Amino acid sequence: MKLKVAILSLSVFAYTGFTAQNIQNNPGSNHGNKFEQLGTILPTPNVYRTASGAPGHAYWQNRADYDINAYLDEDKRNLKGSETITYYNNSPDDLDYIWLQLDENQVSNVKKADFPFSSTLPKASTDQQLKTSDVPPTDNGFGVNLEKVTDASGNPLKYTVNKTMMRIDLPKILKKGEKLVFKVDWNYNISNRIKMGGRGGYENFAEDGNDLYTMTQWYPRMCVYSDFHGWQNHQFTGRGEFALVFGNFKVSMNVPADHVVGGTGECKNYDQVLTSDQLARYNKSKTSTEPVEIVTLDEAKKAEKNHSKQRKTWTFEANDVRDFAWTSSRKFVWDGMGVTIPENNNKVMAMSFYPKEAYGLYRKYSTKAVAHTIKTYSEFTIPYPYPVAQSVEAANGMEYPMICFNFGRTEKDGTYSEGTKNGMLGVVIHEVGHNFFPMIINSDERQWTWMDEGLNTFVEYLTEEKWDNKFPSKRGPAWTIVDYMKLPKDQLEPIMTNSENIVQFGPNAYSKPATGLNILRETIMGRELFDKAFKTYAKRWAFKHPEPADLFRTMEDASGEDLDWFWRGWFYGTDPVDIAIDKVTVATPDLETAPRAAKDNTYKVDKPAVNEFEDISKIRNREDKNITFYVDKDKEAQDFYYRYDRGQEKVDNNKEYTSKFDGTEPLTQKEKDKFKNLTAYQIDFVNKGGLVMPIILEFTFEDGTKLRDKSSAQIWRMNEQKVSKTYYFDKKLKSIQLDPMRETADIDTSNNFWSNDGGTAQISKFDLFKQKEGTNVRGGANGKVNPMQAAGKK
């Protein structure tokens, strides 16, 4: 529709209502520090990390290469390993000891880090709770058993184990530029991860008597020694994840002969471990555009019935990775297909491993979702550099380089709900996406969970959107974080809180940082500026160890936007957004005293929203002709999604208006006649929540036309509590809606509406839809459990 407005509206007579006179009348009374620079809150730039957010000219990081042999004893459920580690000291420091992580000790009740939680009497006790308290605890038999630790010549090295950390005292100083070669032999009993929790272990399938092994945190691993932290040897409690060193891996896994193995990197001996038919299918899959079954469903079902006593050794190699994980089971169906990353022309094998219990979902979607994820993340960050990307169905979610573990099983008859399907797709995208954050952009998860989970959840949201514009994402859109943001202050903590000390872990580490980045992209910076800056951060810190300041500084450096106010409020604070329309004053302007403006003014009237009840990202993605969405041919999914499709309203292109006044003469009678029908509207706003945000308004006129305007967050810079804006229109206003697309995470929309008849806003279709939908399978920002959390993934 076309919208006619007075030339003066939004230009000559539009002002913030805050002038020098206002400042004089209210000297500093409402001026806080929301727009002050972060200053000393951020670490001082140096030769290792610059003020621009880039690595400095003297940046360094150490490296560790691993050569590992592993033996999986299925009968005893025991893992025996022997590794040779070559550690390179690239730091400027001399090291007289080194630290390794023994993460498997967290499964032990006597070796674990022991970060206890408060406990109270339950309303109803379970059989587990009714057991006699074991004080002191009796060793449950889990945790790492070190057999020997020696130098390259076999001479014993002195070591000390402190819970989940091991210090090796070196016989001589490891100087700058030198390397250390040493060996560790160990074993441990593999835990039942379904019953005991945790990221690695086995799952037993009672119906067929088989196990599915996910071997994670399974070998003694080097800690990071860095310029900003020294040794990162904080204990592993099961929550805060990992800080790891890049290096090259060569790993051999000796397993039962009928097992299928997937792991980080490329297998170097498929010709020895696969049948001729399986090898032929594997080679075919490399050039296929559809997933090819390498190990078929029939072969997997047959293998389940025969427990071979023979053994095979699978050998994998991976370069420039920070970790190595693997999986092994005779239950696996295995499919794969080739995918090319356009940005670097990298040929990648996208593959999936899954038991028959997940066949109905994983055969249709998993490998395609893997391919879609690495391609989409490559667009928003850096081109995927590795040769393999794999998804393993293991009833939980967890990530490692080139391989991840996910959930998503069908009912016994092969059917599945739409919620299970969407949950499975979301988890696959999320876990595969972790290849970028933190497997390549290698942040310290032990200290900053949000740099791993929050950044990844943000790009997961972008990837879900490109999979299906109607994907029911519950993390990323601004409105989804509102339930969390409106919690009492004593239930909130800043995003910049250590992993171990977060109460509302999911919303704080995943949802809020992801939502913040989406608000930056859609509402504050705009897509072009944001995407360039975010890609710059990913490029600068690929295969390096970034810290929060490196992200904050890079985003500003590459965009030219001062975002310290946003980092301060969204990441360091707990204030919510609650901007209210406090009062609207309607008046007739005094044309006798109105001078001409002193400059040309050109502006555009914004397009009305396509649909006020859909998320801003979905609308813009549909309008972006460069985006092609994945087409789901599953009819039941189409029926589900389009059941909630809402109509779109066609609009004309933006119209440009120009006004010219010299600023020295009063208005002529002709001009006075032209403006005689103008009505002035002063809108007073109150910042009730504390967190500043742009002011976005939608005006609805009595003739049914609409107009939009947005003021940046800097409108609050002189008065962080109250501001006003005045508009002149040649038509009568019917109503004003603040934040009509709910893109600022405003926690109270009841004070966002004004109408000229004194009425209040009615509940929107958007809110009715949200209430009807309730919670999604993946959980929302309100802290409800999602499948990843329920299955042991934080």
UniProtKB/TrEMBL annotation:
Species name: Chryseobacterium ginsengisoli
Region annotation Disordered: where it falls in the sequence: 775-794
Secretion signal span: 1-20
The keyword Signal is assigned to this record: yes
Name by which UniProt lists this protein: M1 family metallopeptidase
Domain Peptidase M1 membrane alanine aminopeptidase: 370-570
Keyword check for Signal: yes
Domain of life per record: Bacteria
Keywords: Signal
